[in-house]
Design a protein that fits this description.
The chain has helices at 6-48, 70-89, 94-119, 129-161, 165-172. With 180 residues, it is mainly α. It has one domain. The longest helix has 43 residues, at 6-48.
Length: 180
């Protein structure tokens, strides 16, 4: 074998490896986008549950007030919707994912508070049972989608941290993502 071919063979192997490693990182990023789309598809119906409560446009019946728990739920739902819209644009941005997680926790706390206060009402529950059931089922589906997103993020983060792929990640600007 001619030694003048050796540098060309090494260069060809390195280029082939780099292309394959880069394509793998791109596929892992695409998997995160797909997983986030599933999270969004499960969170949007949860956000819209607040619409099933009293809205500000509804006029209360004479002598009735809007229950105290409605405003916090609507506010938390609006915050969750805004955070979801921001995270949709860049699901790799750790700050946006952190904001989405915080908004999700605030949303869950508002609903939990409403259900706790509802349980002590002697006049009967103010939240319809179907609404609570729908919320529970949708929340379980959203949590499952969140686990898939977190697994995709974990695979991606492990891939960009492995040597020698870490060199390509640095060159092409692949940054670690944040799980929900």
């Amino acid at each position: 074998m001619d030694l003048s071919l050796l540098p060309w063979l090494v260069a060809a192997v390195l280029v082939a490896w780099a292309v394959g490693a880069y394509n793998r990182l791109v596929r892992l990023r695409a998997a995160i986008h797909a997983a986030f789309a599933a999270v969004e598809a499960e969170l949007l119906p949860l956000v819209k549950l607040a619409d099933l409560l009293h809205t500000q446009d509804d006029e209360p019946v004479a002598g009735e007030e809007e229950p105290e728990f409605v405003a916090p739920i609507q506010g938390a739902s609006a915050q969750l919707a805004a955070s979801l819209a921001a995270a949709r644009l860049r699901p790799f941005d750790p700050g946006r994912i952190a904001a989405l997680r915080t908004a999700g926790e605030a949303w869950a706390q508002a609903w939990d508070r409403a259900e706790r206060e509802d349980a002590h009402d002697l006049a009967g529950p103010q939240l319809p049972d179907t609404l609570s059931t729908t919320r529970t089922v949708r929340l379980q589906q959203a949590e499952a989608a969140g686990r898939q997103f977190n697994e995709a993020v974990d695979r991606y983060n492990r891939a960009i941290a492995q040597f020698p792929a870490v060199l390509l990640a640095w060159v092409f600007g692949f940054r670690p993502a944040r799980a929900l």
